[in-house]
């Protein structure tokens, strides 16, 4: 028996890491292995998480799931920002969001109940073409370094094991008979991975520019018709700022384009009063693919036949553009679907839950 593989999490993007964290916080760290082709510190066009901007925004969906995940995510990230930002790479940042049209009023009303320093900006202060705008304290995340923080926390503090391996199918994650549950957190691979092959999944490409502009302190984003523009200072990064962006549905092209760079520079200097105030350096353009899914993310328990035996599989993929802000809440829901299985793992060492 290999008790470390009682639970297998496939994928080490933010979604897999958050599932591992929720399980570890519940006492299952030593029963858990994360298996992934790419691990924190890697870059690859099919490893989305390191490319995220990364902020908490009202751009997420308006359905009950999205609302719950956002709220859980905001409180989780706030805690990390309060505790030790220089270690977690999550920081409170002033944020402004503007809408040209289709303002999600009901959603904003619900979010206003927990967002710190929430306010609606007066109509007379809005730039031309903007219908509605809010200010609040967001949480900005240095995505690649936050992921490395999570991996270190999971291994050093909770005893989680990480294995670098590309699985030929999701069934392969069940190769150890001691494995009682597998979490499928494979992002964009969900569309093609044997055993999953979810046709509802599609990539949403975004090009961003990594710049060095230490004078920028405010997160700002404008949601327009057919465009998304944002300026996001990266915490603990020596003044790096992410400028964006694009939301290109169904596009999975990892190249970057000079005309998109021009468009980003043009839009962000108009949007952010701070950005153009001093010289700034463009470090590099990047393109990332948000793992999107028609109908929203899939967080669901399922059964799967492996070598004639029924095994437990939990899906957790399709986070689209919100894996960092919604990931912790999605993980809480994903883990909840297998309470009964987890209880068995505890066996004799059952502990009462607080
Ligand atoms: C430009 C851009 C900006 C963004 N900004 C934000 C933001 O500000 N806030 C926010 O919340 N979100 C943001 N996002 C979205 C966020 O990045 C994604 O929602 C998130 O990264 C999805 O994470 P994931 O874990 O599902 O996928 P991934 O990070 O792609 O991880 C997939 C994992 O599965 C593994 N895997 C896949 N197939 C296999 C296999 N066969 N065998 C083994 N392992 C396998 C991979 O190796 C990897 O470890 C942004 C995205 C982009 C592109
Ligand atoms: C889970 O891990 C604990 C150690 O923390 C161990 O005592 C227990 O046997 C493991 N459970 C299973 C089913 O492997
Ligand atoms: C800001 O956050 C939203 C939602 O989390 C996300 O879709 C958007 O891509 C983010 N911007 C950047 C640059 O990451
Ligand atoms: C695992 O998740 C991916 C999406 O990340 C999906 O395409 C695939 O179908 C899933 N596998 C199974 C067996 O559900």
TrEMBL record:
InterPro entries in the record: D-amino_acid_oxidase_CS (IPR006181), DAO (IPR023209), FAD-dep_OxRdtase (IPR006076)
Gene Ontology annotations of biological process type: D-amino acid catabolic process
SUPFAM superfamilies: FAD-linked reductases, C-terminal domain, Nucleotide-binding domain
Cofactor(s) required, per the database record: FAD
One GO location term (cellular component): cytoplasm
Binding locations of FAD: 48-49, 186
Domain of life of the native organism: Eukaryota
Pfam families: DAO
Keywords from the named record: FAD, Flavoprotein, Oxidoreductase
GO molecular function: D-amino-acid oxidase activity; FAD binding
UniProt-annotated binding residues for D-dopa: 223, 230, 290, 321
Domain FAD dependent oxidoreductase: 7-331
Similarity-based family: Belongs to the DAMOX/DASOX family.
PANTHER family: D-AMINO ACID OXIDASE, D-ASPARTATE OXIDASE
The protein, known as: D-aspartate oxidase
């Amino acid at each position: 028996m290999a008790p470390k593989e009682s639970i297998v999490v496939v994928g080490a993007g933010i979604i897999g890491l958050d599932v591992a964290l929720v399980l570890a916080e519940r006492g299952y760290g030593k029963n858990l292995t994360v298996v992934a082709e790419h691990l924190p510190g890697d870059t690859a066009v099919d490893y989305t998480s390191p490319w995220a901007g990364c902020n908490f925004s009202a751009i997420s969906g308006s359905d009950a799931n999205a609302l719950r995940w956002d709220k859980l995510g905001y409180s989780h990230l706030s805690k990390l920002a309060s505790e030790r930002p220089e270690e977690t790479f999550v920081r409170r940042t002033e944020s402004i969001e503007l809408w040209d049209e289709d303002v999600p009023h009901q959603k904003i009303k619900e979010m206003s109940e927990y967002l710190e320093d929430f306010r609606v900006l007066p109509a007379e202060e809005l730039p031309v073409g903007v219908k509605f705008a809010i200010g609040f304290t967001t949480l900005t995340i240095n995505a690649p370094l936050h992921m490395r923080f999570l991996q270190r926390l999971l291994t050093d503090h909770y005893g989680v094991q990480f294995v670098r391996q590309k699985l030929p199918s999701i069934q392969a994650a069940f190769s150890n008979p001691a494995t009682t549950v597998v979490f499928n957190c494979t992002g964009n691979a969900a569309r093609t991975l044997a055993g999953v092959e979810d046709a509802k999944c599609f990539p949403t490409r975004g090009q961003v520019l990594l710049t060095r502009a230490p004078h920028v302190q405010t997160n700002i984003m404008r949601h327009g018709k057919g465009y998304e523009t944002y300026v996001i200072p990266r915490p603990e990064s020596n003044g790096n700022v992410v400028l964006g962006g694009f939301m290109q549905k169904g596009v999975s092209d990892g190249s970057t384009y000079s005309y998109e760079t021009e468009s980003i520079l043009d839009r962000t200097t108009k949007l952010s009063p701070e950005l153009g105030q001093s010289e700034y350096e463009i470090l590099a353009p990047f393109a990332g693919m948000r793992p999107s899914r028609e109908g929203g993310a899939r967080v669901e328990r399922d059964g799967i036949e492996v070598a004639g035996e029924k095994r437990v599989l939990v899906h957790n993929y399709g986070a689209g553009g919100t894996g960092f802000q919604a990931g912790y809440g999605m993980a809480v829901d994903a883990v909840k679907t297998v309470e009964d299985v987890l209880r068995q793992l505890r066996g004799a060492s059952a502990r009462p839950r607080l």
